[in-house]
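Input for the complex:
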Amino acid sequence: MAVKGWQRAQDPALLVLTSLAAGPMHGYALIRDVETIAHVTLGPGTLYGVLSRLEEEGLVEPLPADDRRRPYRLTGAGAAALRERLLVTSAVASIGLRRLGPALT
Amino acid sequence: MRNFSRITLLSLRAYPAWWQKRYRDEMDAVVGGLMEDGRSSIRISLNLLGGSLRARLLGTGAPASRELWSLRTKTSLLVATLPWFAVIPLAAIFFTNSGENGFFHGNQIAQLSRAGAVAHDLATIISGLLLVSFFVVVFGWGQLRHGLAQRDQRSLLPGASVLAAIIGVVLVLITLPYRLSTATATGCLHIIGSTHLGNCVTKGQGYTFAKVIAFAGLCLLVVAFVLAPIVVARAVRDSELSDESLRSGSRVALTLSTLLVFVALAIAAFGLTASLQPAPQRGMSYFLEKSTLGGWYVLLDVAFVMLAVVSSLGTISARRSYRRTVALDG
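Predicted:
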C-alpha cells in the first residue's frame, strides 16, 4: 500500500530507536528497515545526525565495526525511553481511534 | 575509497574533521550501499550537505574536549561577526543610490507619495541600525582586544591593513573640498532640461585630479576592508580566549546578527516602498523622487539576507559552543 504525506511517521529518532529494538543494525540495514516499517527513506546525513545525537544522549551505543560497517544497539536507557514514548503515542492513538469510532459507524 | 560522484565526495568532505574521523568510514559504506541500490546521488548529496551543515552548526557528537569546543566557539564568533565587514560596502551602495546625498526625501516641488514617505522613514531607520551595529562592533572588539594573543611581529598584515585604512581616509578627505563632478550646465540642460548642477543626474565625463586621488583613496579603503577580516580571524583563532571573552563575544554576535536581520528586513521594505514612488518628472531631480537602484534592490537585499542568515547561524553555533565549553570547564 502506498503511504503518502502526513500519514508517514516523521520523527527519525523514534524510527531509528524502533528499528534498533529488533536488535543491533548497521547504517544501511537501519535505512532499509525504517523504509519497511514506516515507508520513510532516511538519507545518510539524517541517519548519522540522529545516531550521533542518540549516542551522545546514551540511548544507543556503537559496537565494534565489521569491515567498515559499524552496528549500533539500543542501550537500557534507550529501551526505556522508547517504551515511554511508544506508550504515550499508543495512548494518543487509542483515544483518537475511540473518538473516531461513532463517526465511522 | 568507493567510486562516488564528485558532488557526493564534496558533500562528505563538507563534514567537520572530528566527524570525518568518527563516522566517515561507516558513512562511506552506507552511501556505497545506497548507490548500489540505484538511489539518486543528487538526493543523497543534498541530504549529506544538510547533515554537514547541522554537524557544523550544532556539533552534536563532537568529542568532549575543551580545546575543540573553544575553537568551535571562536570560529562561530568569527562567522557571526565578520559579515559586518561586507555590510559596509553594501550599505555604501545603498546610501549612494537611495536619494540625494544618501537621503530619500522630497521638497516643495517634488512631494513624496505615502510610499515615498515610508521609504524616507525606512532609510532613517536603516542608517540608525547600521550606526548601532558600528558601535556594537567597536565595543565587541574593545572587549576582545585584551584576550587576544600578542601580535605576530613577522606578520605585515595588521600594519598594512591599518596603514591602508588611514591613507585611504586621508586621501578621500583631502579631495572632499574639491568638486568631483565634471558635469556642466550645458550637459545638464541637455539631459534633464535644467541648468541646475545640483539636480543633474549625470556624474560627468572624464576625470579630474581630485577624482583620481579620491579613487586611489577608495581603493586603499577596499584593500583595508579585505585585509581586516583576515587579520581579525587570525588574531582570534590564534588566541586562547577566556570564558569571559567568549561570553562577551557570543552576546555581541547575538546583538549584531539581530541588527543584521532587521537591516535586511528594512532594506526589503525600502525597496518595495521606493518602487511604488511615481516616475520622476523631466526637469526635476531624479534623486529627489526615485531611487536609482531600481530592480537591483532585489539583489542588494538578497546579499543582506544572506549576510544576516550566515551571521545568525554563526550566533546559534557560538552560543551553543560557548555553553558546552563552559560545561567542560566544570
